[in-house]
Write a structure and sequence with these properties.
With 216 residues, the protein is of the alpha+beta class. The protein has helices spanning 21-31, 42-46, 48-53, 72-80, 91-121, 128-150, 162-171, 184-194, 197-213; strands at residues 3-8, 35-40, 61-63, 68-70. The structure holds glutathione. Glutathione is lined by residues 19-20, 57-60, 71-73.
Length: 216
C-alpha cells in the first residue's frame, strides 16, 4: 500500500503553511518516498474511525504497509529509520537525532507555542500585559541556549537530520513575532534548512491543497 498521511482540506490563512502535516511531507520529500495525502475536515476528525487512527482528532496521522501512527515527531523518526537523508545509520548517531527531535518538541516548542498563542488568540486582552514578558523571557532563554549550541555549525549535528527538520518547523513559528530575528545564528539556520528543495516541495504541496479547496 502507498504511504498515506492526513492533512486539512483547508485552514484559515494565518495557519496556512504551519499545519503539522508539513513535517511529514518534508521528511518524505527528503527521503524520496512517494506518498498520498488523505484530506480531512472537522467532521471527519470527530468520527470514531478517525479517532482509531489519531486519538485526539488531529492531523497528521500516518500509515504505511507496516504501521499506523500519529504524533508528527514519532512519524518523522519512523521515516528517518528508512532513510539516510534524515539520520545516520549508526545507533549512536540515530540516538542523537532522537534527542534533537525530542528537544525541539519538548524543550523549545511549548515555550514557542505559549508566546504565539498569546499573540494569535489573545491580542489586546488586558491580562496579556502581565503574562507576555514572562512567556517571551522563557522562549528567549531556550533560544539563547540553542544558539550557543549551534554556534557556527550549519546543523545541530554533523549534517542535516530529522532533528533539524523538526527544529526548523518549531523555529519558523517565531518569525512573525520578531523573536527569531533577535537570534541571527538561528534565523540563518532556519533559512538554510528551509532553502532545501524538499522543504519547498512540502510547502507547495500543503499550500496547493488550500488554494484548490479554499472558499470560492
Ligand atoms: N502533537 C501533535 C499535535 C498535532 C496538532 O496540533 N495538529 C493540529 C494542526 S497543526 C490540529 O490537528 N488541530 C486541530 C485540533 O486540535 O482540533 C503532533 O505533533 O502531531
Amino acid at each position: 500500500m502507498p504511504i498515506e498521511l492526513t492533512a486539512f482540506r483547508w485552514v484559515p490563512p494565518f495557519a496556512q503553511g504551519y499545519v503539522r502535516d508539513l513535517r511529514i511531507r518534508w521528511a518524505l520529500e527528503e527521503a524520496g518516498l512517494p506518498y498520498e495525502v488523505v484530506l480531512v475536515d472537522g467532521p471527519t476528525l470527530a468520527t470514531e474511525r478517525y479517532r482509531q487512527w489519531q486519538p485526539f482528532g488531529q492531523v497528521p496521522a500516518y500509515r504505511d504497509d507496516a504501521v499506523e501512527m500519529f504524533e508528527s515527531g514519532a512519524i518523522v523518526l519512523h521515516i528517518a529509520e528508512r532513510s539516510e537523508a534524515l539520520a545516520p545509520r549508526d545507533a549512536a548517531g540515530r540516538a542523537r537525532v532522537t534527542t534533537w527531535v525530542i528537544a525541539a518538541l519538548n524543550s523549545i516548542e511549548p515555550h514557542a507555542q505559549n508566546l504565539v498563542n498569546l499573540d494569535t488568540f489573545h491580542a489586546g486582552e488586558a491580562w496579556i500585559e502581565a503574562r507576555r514578558p514572562q512567556a517571551q523571557a522563557m522562549i528567549d532563554g531556550r533560544l539563547a541556549s540553542l544558539s550557543a549550541w549551534l554556534g557556527d555549525k550549519a546543523y545541530l549535528e554533523d549534517g542535516f537530520t530529522a532533528g533539524d527538520l523538526i527544529m526548523t518547523t518549531v523555529l519558523r513559528e517565531l518569525v512573525d513575532c520578531g523573536t527569531l530575528g533577535r537570534f541571527p545564528k538561528l534565523a540563518a539556520y532556519r533559512e538554510r534548512c528551509e532553502a532545501r528543495p524538499a522543504f519547498g516541495r512540502a510547502m507547495e504541496g500543503q499550500m496547493r491543497t488550500f488554494r484548490e479547496n479554499g472558499p470560492a
